[in-house]
Design the sequence.
């Protein structure tokens, strides 16, 4: 049975995502993303489940930074989880009496409209996770009146739902990934995603365009690109890429190799099945058979046979 670390405590959206990925896995609750991924690196867990991207807020920066700056890990699976938030409080609490709310910053961002309308005078304080917020509110003598959390957290910690489905949008989805120590890649499925991080070799006009060209000329469709600071001063960035296909595909492998040639450093993060099962649209000239045929033709050219 697999042992999976996750962003805890019990009752987080991450725990829900873990249950979808591996229902029978032994779960190891961790206080933050860094601790969850470090548990994998130390061998305390076989893999870790962490949030990577939200359809409303974008990339989860703590996860992106940890994947880049820690020991290498490999993304092996993903899951898409619809996100619903509730305002939870101790029994007997009325919404008009709520003055201090505890929640994760991402949840705060996604519930700003509700907070502005229903809790205009409340102070919102950041917590390590939405479940940790619910856990804190449940404690006797807690200085917080309510938590914004997943509905399941109320069941775990004995809180009542003051208001449900309070997110600014009801179609918000968070993408979670399974990260393991380096090893064999998942086999290609025909509906895969590849993720990596690339660092600029030097800052010059067109540097990012050169990176993007490696993908475009080979017909590799980018699904996401995000820049993050390296920490080495203003203006120093690395770029996170998600794109369609598996590194075993000829067009993807050549794009990754091309990126490696022109970048200061590339950290390959993995090729894994897409949660939505969508296969890429491959244009003429960039299928594996096209690369094979071109390779055979080039060999003949070099032998003087064409």
Sequence:
């Amino acid at each position: 049975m697999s042992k999976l670390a996750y962003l805890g405590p019990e009752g987080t959206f991450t725990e829900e995502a873990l249950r979808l990925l591996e229902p029978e896995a032994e779960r190891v609750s961790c206080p933050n993303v860094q601790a969850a991924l470090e548990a994998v690196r130390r061998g305390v867990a076989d893999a870790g489940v962490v949030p990577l991207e939200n359809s409303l807020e974008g990339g989860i920066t703590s996860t992106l930074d940890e994947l880049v700056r820690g020991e290498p890990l490999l993304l092996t699976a993903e899951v898409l989880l619809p996100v619903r938030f509730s305002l939870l409080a101790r029994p007997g609490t009325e919404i008009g009496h709520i003055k201090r709310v505890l929640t994760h910053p991402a949840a705060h961002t996604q519930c700003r409209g509700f907070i502005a309308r229903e809790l205009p005078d409340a102070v919102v304080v950041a917590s390590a996770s939405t479940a940790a917020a619910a856990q804190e509110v449940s404690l006797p003598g807690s200085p917080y009146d309510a938590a914004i959390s997943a509905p399941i957290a109320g069941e775990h910690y004995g809180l009542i739902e003051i208001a449900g489905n309070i997110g600014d949008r009801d179609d918000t989805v968070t993408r979670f990934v399974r990260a393991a120590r380096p090893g064999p890649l998942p086999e290609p499925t025909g509906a895969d995603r590849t993720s990596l991080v690339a660092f600029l070799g030097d800052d010059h006009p067109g540097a990012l365009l050169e990176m993007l060209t490696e993908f475009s000329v080979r017909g590799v469709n980018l699904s996401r690109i995000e820049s993050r600071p390296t920490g080495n001063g203003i203006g120093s960035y690395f770029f996170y890429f998600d794109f369609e296909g598996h590194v075993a595909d000829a067009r993807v492998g050549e794009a990754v190799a091309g990126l490696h040639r022109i970048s200061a450093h590339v950290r390959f993060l993995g090729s894994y099945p897409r949660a939505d099962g969508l296969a890429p649209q491959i244009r003429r000239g960039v299928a594996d058979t096209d690369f094979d045929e071109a390779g055979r033709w080039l060999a003949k050219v070099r032998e003087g046979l064409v």
The CA atoms of residues 99 and 122 lie 4 Å apart. DSSP finds ten helices and 15 strands in the chain.
